[in-house]
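Hi C.,

You asked whether I'd gotten around to modeling the 426-residue construct. I have! Everything is below, sequence then structure, no commentary in between.
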Amino acid sequence: MHRILAAILVAASSASAAQTREGPISSAPSPSVGLSLDQAVAAAGGSAPAADAASASINAAQAARDVAGLRPNPSFQGQVENVAGSGPYRGLRSAETTVGVSIPIELGGKRSARVAVAGAQVSRAQLQAAITAANIRVQVTQIYVEAVAAERRLATARDQARIAAEVLRGAGVRVRAGRASPLEQQRADVARINADANVERLTRLADAARTNLARRIGRPIDGALDTGSLDRLPAATFGPVAPSKAEGTLALAAADADLAIADAGIRLARANRAPDINIGPALRRLEATNDTAAVLAISIPIPVFNNGRAAVAQATAEWTRAEAVRRVTALDVEQAITDAEAEAANAATSARAASGPALAAAQEAARIARIGYREGKFGQLDLLDAERTLAETRAAAIDALANYQNARARLERLTAPAPDQQGIDR
């Protein structure tokens, strides 16, 4: 069953890569990537407990289908008559011993109906495995994005700490040269201390995110992550968007599978209304004459108290419920996809703005402030304000990029196509 889950995860990874290629890539992946997102998803799919549970559910459903196709077992029967009585029936002198078997014969297509129900449950279990694989991909994607964003935040914090150290050195030179008051050096020292503390804090968060990712994929992470995956944004789109459809999604396929199980349950309830026949061929030995005779017994239950109508009504009600749930699921999925598409589009717009013009403007302002401060044209407060604005803009850009990647992962989960179960080896 692990091969099934692996195939589902590979297909999901290919679909994700295809969707990512729809827009331009603002930053190329790191040349020395030790663990890409697709590799992390594949590794997590092979070690996740949820994947093992899904495989076990498929095995259990297939075993249940095998059990449903078995015929009922015959019963051995033994009987001794005319014993321990009075007169000629005292003791075992007139005993009649009968041994035989009772063979139940199912009527009404019960066995094929049971197999149909079990087959529908196998299909549902396979769909649940696909749902589990899609959930694993979303979870791993979010953890991977958080790890990449944490490393990006740490790199930004280290750069800000380096700049703060340079500003402190410049302030010291200005103070020693008598061009500034010692207050400037104190301000620069406070900024440097805060920057170093921020580096220490973000280092712990980056280590924790990397540890969580390693725990999820079941092995240590060697090498760098694909930091460029955070910068992949789609091209800007304008104009009306086609209405979202729930057809072909995993959620609606699961509702269809539940409806198929309910439909097979109606057929089974109707088949159970037909009474079964028990045929009991046997041999009887008469102790008095030492003769042997054949015995044939046939028993047919009389459906007086339980004629199966209540079971059919129950199965019909279950089908009605499943059909209503399917309609509700279609509406919910289409609404969720519409909301997720809007969320992903808005996140992409915010990410393009934060990581594009806004970041470029903040970087240019900080560069000008540094040059002006060194030349004595700008005060220290102007420099610190520009550096603070740059740090906040960088953090906002990283958050916006991470929000888009997470929104895209949720959208892919909602629109994940149901696997073709005709091609699954059952």
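If it helps when you're writing up: Residues 124 and 259 are 10 Å apart (CA to CA).

Thanks,
B.
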